[in-house]
Amino acid sequence: MFDVARLGMFFGRLVKEEDGLAGLKKGLEKFFNSVKDFGYDFHFQAEIKGDKILTVSKCSVHTYFPKWCEHNCIIFLEGFAGVFEEVKVKRISRQPENEFCMFELSKY
Q: Model pTM greater than 0.85?
């Protein structure tokens, strides 16, 4: 069975430069900027608000891999984020039902 959380951890480790929420924000930005090299621009944005990170993106994953979007985005993000900080990942909205895909990553 494919372990999506470990895949997220793998990519998190590749881009990690520092710990904590600030490091997680930078890691997410680095990851999504790297994806642009392969022709996918998620228009990713992240903002730290207190002990949370709010992310907003235009995600095309739902178009090509709807089952991944539905079942694995949160698991992947939990694995990725866990490399930097212990956080709870919550999906706020997703495409195509909404204009943006949004997540909240908050410290436990």
A: yes
Q: Please state the domain count of the chain.
A: 1
Q: Are residues 9 and 79 in contact, defined by beta-carbon separation less than 8 angstroms?
A: yes
Question: Which 8-state DSSP code applies to residue 18?
Answer: S
Full domain range(s) for residue 26: 4-107
Q: What are the pLDDT digits (tens) for 67-82? A: 888 889 999 999 999 9
At residue 45, φ and ψ (nearest 5 deg) are -135, 145
Quick check: bond before 66 cis, omega within 30?
no
* Host H or E run for residue 14: helix 4-15
